[in-house]
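User: I'm writing a tutorial on reading structure tokens. Could you give me a worked example: one chain, its sequence, then its tokens, then a sentence or two explaining what the tokens reveal?
Assistant: Sure. Here is the example chain.
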Amino acid sequence: MVTIEVAGRALGLLPQKAALLPECATLLVADAHVGKATSFRALGVPVPRGTTSETLAALSELIARHAVRRIVFLGDFLHSPRAHAPATLDTLARWRAAHAALPLVLVRGNHDDRAGDPPAALGFQIVDEPLIEGGLALCHHPAPVDGTHVIAGHLHPCVSVRGRAHERLRLPCFHVGAQVTVLPAFGSFTGMHPVRRAPGDRVYAVAGDTVREVPA
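And here are its predicted structure tokens:
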């Protein structure tokens, strides 16, 4: 974990493509896109199975490793209305039962508007953006909010770096600007888009089990 400071608060950048507010043990997760593979298969697109289970297993590992006391999902928890397929909802229900006492908050994103809210039985607190907490605005869309530092998702940021034999690698990244921090997409079946880096921005790439700052 790499720890930075935003709005006077510590923010841990995790190689699992999530962020942690250690003072309140709150895990921040953007763009889980649960049920995306199911949605694609329903449209006849052959994609791998098991991505929902993989995403939820990664969440469970983080909950245990960091003694997480709350998760805030920064939008796009479910990918589409087809994510309400019985098999996907059953997987979600079993995961939720294993973490029944853990508060879950969803800040609605654009995919949530189309997919609909998670079933009430999953026990989410569902809010619209911004969710203001102690100088931070927890959002889906990475737009400035006056008087706060925004932590958001939506863009699925990545950065291109030079690898071995001079090949170029595209790695998911955290993009930290003066007013807005954008988290990488957490879901195991999501695309990525290159960051547009402004002067003074910091970019932290996720490479395997490490997070490393990428110089300008």
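What the tokens reveal: The mean pLDDT is 89. Residues 58 and 64 are 10 Å apart (CA to CA).
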